[in-house]
Amino acid sequence: MNCLEFRRELAASPQVMSAAAREHRGHCSTCADAWHRAQLFEQRLQSVLAVPVPMGLADRILLRQTTDSRVHRQSARQTWIRLAAGLMMTAGMVGVGYLTFGTSASLASASMAHLSHEPFALNRTELIPAATVSQLFAESGVYLKAPLQSITYLTRCPVYGQKTIHMVIRDGGQPITAIYVPNNQQGSADFAERQIVGRHRNIGHGTLVLMAEHGDAFDRIEASFRAAIEGSSSLAGMY
How far is it, in rounded angstroms, from Cα 153 to Cα 121? Predict the structure, then answer.
């Protein structure tokens, strides 16, 4: 098993790994470190989910809902409508191109949600060889015309209902998440949620999603991906 295969298995099943993965972890310090960070994240997640529910809470909630529905039926309905609208705004993306919650918004929402699944990816600083990046793209049916560099995290992840290529790129110390969705064009849109900004653009036969704390490097990174995938720019190999 090589490092790329280990990362794929780690992303798919961080708590239960095959004998080959355990053997690889035993002699690869980089992958062992990635496994350790994944376990810490899983432990924190389990501790959050394990918070005990106060005794009788469900009964009190049901009683309160019943009482409110009898006394303030119309007011409660309006409150739930406002709450639902607020949740949609939180889950959705606010920005250029989002006049409705269509398929583009779903891609942006799914990509944003995926960030929370692999937070340890943003901490990686070791560069992945360009040949390894090209190999993973080729396995997805995308043959790069120029190398993609400055990538510190690389794996295939299920996002938006299909396998995507999830990457992290280092730009002046800032981690920038890039997700390429092969054979699925979603057009152009910008989005933002809380402290994260993003965009997605059609590149080749797929869609590139970029997300970071700020988008200063988005134009350069987009140009580099476009050059590598489409062969249309002199900026190829910049990232």
Answer: 6
- The domain spans of the chain are 1-51, 57-91, 96-230
Task: Give the single-character DSSP code of 151.
Answer: E
Tally of CB atoms within 10 A around 7:
24
* C-alpha to C-alpha distances, 26 to 20, 30, 167, nearest whole angstrom: 10, 10, 25
State CA 198 to chain mean position distance: 11
The CATH fold of domain 96-230 = Protein Transport Mog1p; Chain A (3.40.1000)
Q: What are 81-104's pLDDT values in tens digits?
A: 443 444 344 344 333 333 233 345
For 81, the enclosing helix (H) or strand (E) is: helix 73-91
Give, for 166, the enclosing helix (H) or strand (E).
Answer: strand 162-171
Question: What is the sign, positive or negative, of the torsion defined by CA atoms of 173, 131, 184, 234?
Answer: positive
Cα gap 169→164, rounded to integer Å: 16
- List, in sequence order, the alpha helices (H) in 92-199: 103-115, 130-139
Residue 4: alpha-carbon gap to chain centroid? 18
Run of H or E residues at 209? strand 206-212
Distance of CA 78 to the CA centre of its chain: 34
Q: Which residues of the chain have pLDDT under 50?
A: 72, 75-77, 79-103, 234-238
- pTM here is 0.56
What is the helix, strand, coil percentage profile of the chain, to 5?
50, 20, 30
Alpha helices in the chain (DSSP H): 3-12, 19-27, 29-49, 57-71, 73-91, 103-115, 130-139, 218-230
